[in-house]
Amino acid sequence: MISTVERLFETMCLIRAFEDEAGKMLEQGFARGSVHQYVGEEAIATAICDQLHVTDYISSYHRGHGHSIAKGLDICAMAKELLGRAGGTCNGKGGSMHIADFSKGMLGANGVVPDGVTLAVGAAQSIKLLKQDRVVVAFFGDGALNRGPLFEAFNWASVYELPILFVCEDNQYAHTQRTRSVTAGEGGPLRAKAFGIPAVSVDGNDVIAVYEMAKALLNQLRTERKPLYLHANTHRLYGHLAYDKGLYRDPNEVESWKKQDCILRTEQWLQQQGVKSSKLLKVHQHARQQVTQAFEQAKAAPFPDILEAFTDVQDVGFEKGLK
Ligand SMILES: Cc1ncc(C[n+]2csc(CCOP(=O)(O)OP(=O)(O)O)c2C)c(N)n1
Ligand SMILES: [Mg+2]
Which atom of ligand 1 lies at the shortest distance from residue 170's CA? Predict the structure, then answer.
């Protein structure tokens, strides 16, 4: 178990380093648009994606960098994508909220709440029609719990018995709103159960708990091939966006969550198992070096050719003579 947790720790540190640098890129004007950091939530994507095959699919949402890294995407291509450069995962046309890499089974981050989930159900339907043995994991936030398309997705997946794991990352806020205050009834798990989907909850800041829970759920999914739901309770330690200072939150609330930080807790666990703090420090340093190099390469990369705007997109009339 120690080597597994060490591997998970490395991935979590890489995600955190990437997110810190991504925030700086937005601040300094290198990244345009928005950057939603996954800081504090790294344990969830890390523990689940660690147990997926490259051929399995995931879908994500606006807070998608962590899922992409955990699914094995190249951080240099991700950095280029954030800066809108050639060689980015979408050749610089997608930016932070549209990172995708089908070769790694990453179907895409998504700016529309919760459209990544409906795409994931489509992918699960294709798996069933093609009689493949892949599975799908759809990650989404608690804000999605109050959007109609989520329930269409639950219904369709349940009726057609599709191999999909729905993962709600409940960081307790949707933008500046406490999600609880706008959510009727008991929330996510009960809503999934209403569609006949078995649902469980987990402490999303405990990487070992998420790992064990995901192991059981993925085993069940791979054999029974029917939808399942996981509700992971967590917190985002930063603002909604990189420039949001989160002033709508009680500072005591954030402080108490910092003590529950998934990386901190993993460090404490590893130290209890006898892993030296110097070794843990090296993991952080290595993660930061990799990320710095990735963003240096991204800054040095050219912007895509203007004609690139017309490739890999739906028909925009270019072939009919628009220049
Ligand atoms: C259909 C739709 N409505 C509104 C928005 C604006 N919006 C962007 S992020 C967000 C909050 C989402 O909260 P949650 O799903 O909990 O994800 P979190 O940001 O907390 O990770 C909203 C309302 C959107 N992107 N899509
Ligand atoms: Mg949320």
Answer: 16
